[in-house]
Each structure stands twice: as structure tokens, then as C-alpha cells.
């Protein structure tokens, strides 16, 4: 894959979507910085429209579709946040949408999608994408993949534009599910700076890219268990695999018990409402998987906040 102009496409995407998304805050986490003895920042995509970074990629994709294509409606497969983004855009455009969610998705996320007027269809983690593609083929709807779509990844990478416009010499720590976010971030980051690193974190029981890198090709995994419900994809994206292989500096895993510790710190000490999936980057630091010194600037990508406080408390206390 030719990466030389990837960053230019991300800049164009930023212009394409800028009127539809927020430039979310980039803040220093004082308590956690003091605890770890280094500077820890966070990009708060839990404060994005739809409370997730996913809207960036969906808007970028939709802005490239023709009016005729949009009239056919949208369909996707999702663990929740991407589905909410698709449903939000469909509602804005006044077109139908169908979202195939996995049985592991939370009731809260399913209801948010229904409240936006989209039809929710429950399937399994393993079969949800096949079912969404079948619907697209039979009903003529436009299928928007959450990660294996270069237009979507391009949109997700726009959050890196916002970060690197403010600061450099960073370690960007990115939760990895389908791979669309980290591939978009890496394409932009590695195109504009030599001084920042991109580090991905997968749940210990969902090592789809860790395994794929060892195998030298995209390799499916068996479904495991994790509290990070937004990172439960078992199928690596072919496009994301190439970018992760070629441009991501490091890829590590994190155990659930450290995700839980991170969630506790973010919720009780920094007063942030974030999903377990969004806490995995801090979890990996607490687990000792990411090395740093007191001169580093660590940036945690807080991907989403579609969770309520009682659920967070139940997870922390379980």
C-alpha cells in the first residue's frame, strides 16, 4: 500500500466533516499524571456527537455518496457505537437504516439506536457482518463497514489532525477493535511527524491483530470474554491489517482486571464517563505493557462514553 499521500486524504476528510463533528477537548489528566509520574493527556471523544468517535468515519463516508445512493438507505453491523452513528446520520437525512448488533451489545446501545429510528437486528459476533451484507444485497441498501472501509478509516483519522495541531512528540495510545480507528490515526500521524508513536491495545481475549501479525496475514480468532464490549470483533480488516503491520509502532494486549482499574481511576478520580473499551489504553499502562519515562507525553484516545454511571459502578465493584 502506498502511504505517501494518506495524510493529505485525512486533511481533506477533516474539511469534509468539520461542520458535522466537534473538535473534542484534549486535556491533561492531573491525578493520573501525578500517579504515573509522567504527563497523561486524553482526547475526549466521549464528548463527540453520538458520544463516540464513530460519527467521524460515517459522516466522511456519507459525504462521498451520491443522492441516489443515499435514498436507498443504510445498513451496518456494529457492537453499538458505529450503529448509533449510522442511525444518527440516517435520521438527519430522513432515510431508513438497519443496524445488525451482536448479542454482546448492551441494552443501552440497542435502545439508543432504536430511539433514532433505525431498525435493530440482533445476531452473533461471528455472523453479524454476513447478515448485514445479505440485507444490503437483498434490499439495495448501502453497507457501511465500521473498519474495513478506507473512507471510514480516513474519517476516524481526523481526530489525529486535531491532536497534532496542538502538540507533538507523543505516544498515542489507541483502543483496537475492528482496526479502523488506529489505521486512520497511523496513516495521518506517520505522514506528518517522525516524533510521535502510535500504540494499539487489544483485549487479552480478542487478540485478532496480535495473532494476525504473528501469522503474517489477517487471521480470525475465536470469540472470548471481555468487559470491553466495543472491542469484540473477531475478524481483522484487511486494510487495517496492512496499516497496523507497516505503520503502528507497537501493539499490546490488556487484561480485564486492568481495564477495570483504569475505569475506576477515570470515573472516580478524573470524573469521566467512559466505556470499558475506552479505558483499555490506561489499563495497558497500569499493566506495565506500555513503557514510558517522566519526559513522555501519553495521549489516551477516549473513544466513547455510551454507558451510564450505574453500569460503570457495577463493573468496578464486580
Q: Would you kindly provide a written description of the structure presented here, covering whatever features stand out?
A:
This protein is α/β, with parallel strands linked by helices. It is built from 15 helices and 10 strands. The protein has helices spanning 6-17, 30-36, 54-63, 67-71, 81-93, 107-115, 128-139, 150-156, 158-164, 180-192, 208-215, 238-247, 256-269, 280-286, 309-317; strands spanning 26-28, 39-44, 74-78, 97-102, 119-123, 142-143, 171-175, 197-203, 250-254, 297-302. It has a 6-stranded mixed sheet, sandwiched between helices. A 4-stranded parallel sheet has the order 5-4-3-6, sandwiched between helices. Helix 10 packs parallel to helix 12 and helix 13 crosses helix 14. The protein starts with 5 loop residues before the first helix and ends with a helix. InterPro entries: Ser/Thr_Dehydratase, Ser/Thr_deHydtase_PyrdxlP-BS, TrpB-like_PALP, TrpB-like_PALP_sf. Pfam families: PALP. Residues 18-303 form the Tryptophan synthase beta chain-like PALP domain.
Amino acid at each position: 500500500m502506498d502511504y505517501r499521500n494518506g495524510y493529505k486524504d485525512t486533511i481533506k476528510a477533516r474539511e469534509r466533516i468539520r461542520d458535522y463533528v466537534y473538535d473534542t477537548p484534549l486535556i491533561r489528566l492531573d491525578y493520573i499524571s501525578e500517579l504515573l509520574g509522567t504527563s497523561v493527556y486524553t482526547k475526549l471523544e466521549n464528548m463527540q456527537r453520538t458520544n463516540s468517535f464513530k460519527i467521524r468515519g460515517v459522516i466522511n463516508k456519507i459525504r462521498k455518496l451520491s443522492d441516489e445512493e443515499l435514498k436507498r438507505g443504510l445498513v451496518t453491523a456494529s457492537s453499538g457505537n458505529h450503529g448509533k452513528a449510522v442511525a444518527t446520520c440516517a435520521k438527519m437525512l430522513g432515510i431508513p437504516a438497519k443496524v445488525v448488533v451482536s448479542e454482546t451489545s448492551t441494552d443501552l446501545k440497542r435502545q439508543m439506536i432504536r430511539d433514532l429510528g433505525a431498525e435493530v437486528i440482533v445476531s452473533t459476533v461471528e455472523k453479524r457482518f454476513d447478515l448485514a451484507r445479505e440485507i444490503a444485497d437483498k434490499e439495495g441498501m448501502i453497507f457501511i463497514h465500521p473498519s474495513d472501509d478506507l473512507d471510514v478509516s480516513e474519517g476516524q483519522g481526523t481526530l489525529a489532525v486535531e491532536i497534532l495541531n496542538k502538540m507533538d512528540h507523543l505516544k498515542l495510545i489507541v483502543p483496537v477493535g475492528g482496526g479502523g480507528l488506529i489505521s486512520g490515526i497511523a496513516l495521518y500521524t506517520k505522514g506528518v511527524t517522525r516524533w510521535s508513536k502510535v500504540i494499539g491495545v487489544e483485549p487479552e481475549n480478542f487478540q485478532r491483530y496480535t495473532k494476525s501479525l504473528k501469522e503474517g496475514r489477517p487471521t480470525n480468532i475465536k470469540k472470548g470474554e471481555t468487559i470491553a464490549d466495543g472491542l469484540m470483533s473477531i475478524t481483522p480488516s484487511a486494510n487495517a491489517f496492512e496499516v497496523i503491520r507497516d505503520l503502528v509502532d507497537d501493539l499490546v494486549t490488556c487484561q480485564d482486571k486492568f481495564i477495570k482499574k483504569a475505569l475506576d481511576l477515570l470515573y472516580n478520580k478524573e470524573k469521566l464517563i467512559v466505556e470499558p473499551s475506552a479505558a483499555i489504553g490506561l489499563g495497558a499502562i497500569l499493566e506495565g505493557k506500555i513503557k514510558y519515562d517522566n519526559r513522555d507525553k501519553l495521549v489516551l484516545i477516549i473513544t466513547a462514553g455510551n454507558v451510564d454511571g450505574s453500569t460503570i459502578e457495577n463493573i468496578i465493584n464486580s
